[in-house]
Write a structure and sequence with these properties.
By secondary structure, this protein is an alpha+beta fold. The chain folds into three domains: 349 residues, no CATH class; 91 residues, no CATH class; 155 residues, Immunoglobulins (Immunoglobulin-like). Helices cover 54% and strands 11% of the residues. The chain is built from 24 helices and 14 strands. It has a five-stranded antiparallel β-sheet with strand order 7-6-10-13-12, with no helix packed on it. Helix 11 crosses helix 23 and helix 12 crosses helix 23. The radius of gyration is 28 Å and the shape is elongated. The relative contact order is 0.11. The model has no long low-confidence stretch (mean pLDDT 93).
Length: 639
Amino acid sequence: MPRPNRWFLFIPVIPTIIYVLNLLFYPSRDGLILWRREFDVSLDAILPLIVCVSLYSAVSWLLIRRIKPDGGLTRMQRIELITLVVLGSLAIQWSVTRVSEPDPLAGIAWRTYAIKSGGYWTVGAQVQDLGEFIANYTVNAPEYPVHQSRHPPGLSLIYWGGAQLFKLTPEVANTVANWLRPYSCLSDVSTTVAANQMAAGAFGIVVEIALAMLTVWPLYLLVKRVAGTSAAVIAALLYPLTPGFGMWVAQDDRIFPLVTITVLLLCEAIVTENSNWHAFLAGLLLSLATFASFGNVPMALIACIYVLVRITQTEPFWRKFQTWRKRILQAILVAIGSISIWLLSYIFYGLNPIELYKVVISSHLSIDFPYWPFVAWHPWDIITFIGLPVVAITALAGWKKAAPLTAAFCVTLLVMSVLHIARGETGRVWLFFTPVAVAAAAVIIARKRQGEQALVILLLAIQLIVMAGVLRILNDYGITPAKMPAVQIPSDATTIDTRFGASGQIALLGYKVPELRVGAYQTMTLYWQRMSPEPINVAYKVFIHVATNDQDQTRVASDDTGPVDWLYPTTCWQPGQIIEDIHPLTTSIDTHPGQYPIFVGLYDPHGKVRPPTFASPPSRQMYGSILLPQPANVTIEAR
């Protein structure tokens, strides 16, 4: 029986309680709180989360109590473990999503198709010629949606593969596509795309959820090899309770933890079995991971640190010099495997990884973030999504009993923070750290008393419930038709009679233009309405040109964005619905005071084609746009 250690209790308790209290009661969004919060959650929304997490935690605790510290699992215990992890993982993902989405499956579909939350389906499902897609990827990447434009082609190929599979089963494709079409309007792709392409979104959803859950299997195998069955069971049961697992459903970054922990499992075989085959497989997995995202490169550092520390544990000092040739060969095999996918892409399709890296990383690094605050905030962000009890135990108690895992986690996280490679949030993109920390913590927890083990599970469950209950991390993918507020054209707006499209399916009914000041930021409001009973099949972009003259060749102010700040594409508009569409306008500093004509129009961002326009006087249709009857009045900014 392990000896009680009262000091161990403070390691996970103190940071978890402080963070949870901040989430619930600290009003400001700074310091420990990095995400938007909502407290007006209904009991109907939060109760399933509390029930699912509580039941899973309780049953997990009962199963852990039945495991003999130094024994294996019986056949029944293995069945119980697998059943609990599978059903519990699904229940947790469902209940967490339901907090912010009344229909979790619909919410997951919205996130998959929405251009703002990924864009991988937008690109991948429409690929017709795989070779041409990969060959021209470097050139086309800047034109892809924001997330896809900053990544290699790997993730979009999941949806390409789904489209090819559904092409073989047209009836199934039609059934799936018909259910999903209403949820695809937040993309910039026509909602009438081929059934197999639409159904590819479902394939991507299933792959993402399945691979995210599959992470538990290599996690169990690795911890079992290094610390025994009891620790392995604890690791497998803790992983679904990590906040990031349940809160980032439908985000493809949840796939990458599977790669990290599988690579470490292969590294364990490299060290303990001197296996060259495992070395090449580890490199191959790293190659696949970087082909999906250059952000996965740190996995290589995690693996290197793990191997180096593990070697010091397993080999006497004198023997290290006898096996150096074997280790060099294994390192070469890892390197060969790491470039294998890239090399094949270059040989067969001409995809230059160096040129592609320059293109996508230059876009990523152009995002301006201050250095010093994010040296702390970036690791803090991912630490909260891993779970404070897990990270606290790993960082403060793991150096003796779980040194390879602890060093791989802590050192790599520190290096990534200091290098300032990340931009924006890391709670999603650094999820590949999660199983490393869970594995290290499980090794420590397995050596503690049952009461201490129960406390860790309880703390992690509380943090998950509170984070999922109040934080809103995936609600900016757009506005669904049901959530679009009803508006009326205000009395101070200028009303006009215009139509866009061959059948006049879109109308611009009014607008409000402020008095523009030189060099100042202001906004102009447009009021649109869908006139046709049939859906709008093109996600048009809106342009506003405050031109120097009615030839519209040069402009003193302009805007070119999706409607409602990209949140509500024309493909989502409902019949008769009026849309209030606000656009920013900043007048150039060299503009002379005076009156300037304003052109407003729509265009298809893919074909760059403007639809036909129709206007009644005093408006005029010109150059595929509408010349508004009220010009912009530009004045000098008052000092």
